[in-house]
User: Fold these one by one.
Assistant:
Number 1:
Amino acid sequence: DAKTTQPPSMDCAEGRAANLPCNHSTISGNEYVYWYRQIHSQGPQYIIHGLKNNETNEMASLIITEDRKSSTLILPHATLRDTAVYYCIVRARRTGNQFYFGTGTSLTVIP
Amino acid sequence: GAVVSQHPSWVICKSGTSVKIECRSLDFQATTMFWYRQFPKQSLMLMATSNEGSKATYEQGVEKDKFLINHASLTLSTLTVTSAHPEDSSFYICSARDPASPAETQYFGPGTRLLVL
């Protein structure tokens, strides 16, 4: 399984862009990168996913490097409600496509 | 996005009793669901993969006789914690894989908080 590495914590000023990095240097060619976030005491919320190309939706943008060894989740205008733990996951290659969560990045948006 | 519900949202029980948690996919059919457990200040830990109409696949170290999983329909999976003990107190979260998604995205339920006294 490809493993991911994320910084344990980050701060971001309200209204500014939050850039959350993820390293997945052992990713294989057919594995997607997924981003989820977990607000305290809730289930994880799907944010975005990508394979090779950069992706954007109403929540965030996902930038994947050309070699696919790392990616960055961008929240363009962070709000206080974006304070959460953000998880970068690479889909397991084993049958069943399980997700294995790392420790994630705890993002704190500061007023 | 797709919606997954869990019931109950929280439960308190006495040691030795069994507790059943339901996970439902509300607007899609899920042939595969997953069960996770999360202890305070820790990440989610995958417990088992639940496949509709077949036996669940448990992760290493998870007792299959203690955590009974049933996936009898395409929209419902249940997790039963048998003979619960205080160390089973945790936040239990399910997810369902959306087969319509080319990337097989998983959608998570809101979680069930279990407290065993």
Note: The beta strands of chain A are 9-13, 18-23, 33-38, 45-50, 55-56, 61-64, 70-75, 84-90, 105-110.
Number 2:
Amino acid sequence: EAGVAQSPRYKIIEKRQSVAFWCNPISGHATLYWYQQILGQGPKLLIQFQNNGVVDDSQLPKDRFSAERLKGVDSTLKIQPAKLEDSAVYLCASSLAGEDTQYFGPGTRLTVL
Amino acid sequence: QKEVEQNSGPLSVPEGAIASLNCTYSDRGSQSFFWYRQYSGKSPELIMSIYSNGDKEDGRFTAQLNKASQYVSLLIRDSQPSDSATYLCAVNIQAGTALIFGKGTTLSVSS
């Protein structure tokens, strides 16, 4: 069974530029999460989708971050414009609907200069 | 504010020893508890989940939960250098919701 796929793996941008990350969850997983992990911290939820609907985006900085999961499968997370403090690893995770176990993708390491 | 607290370490143990990792959580309504292992530069990998008070064993790993004390621990027996990683404690309020993570404890096992 293929795991959660993410791309790109690494991205370096200048502040005020925009960037987009892509995630493809495990086949059949209705629930998709985007987490932000700053160096030395645990992952923190940005947004949770159930199929193509948003379940929780209370911690998403909506003035600069956006995310979509239009067809209920893969998802895109965008940052525009990026700030220095957005430097982090962006992790995508998926799970079966209503299940506890979340499977993480390899992450995208973003560096904002 | 729901919080999960862990000692950041580093925790250093010799090869073959027992490593003990601890975690406390603030929300009494937390239902599910997880330990993830994260190697440097890699994503978190689930190693144990526990849902009820007591101990749960899986190979060299034992998770312990005490809901009255809001305390979760992970014991690693016969520690190996390959166990050197950051261990993240995570909780959630109900199935299908996001995990709340601690900052992680860095474990170093010396040979």
Note: The mean pLDDT of chain B is 95.
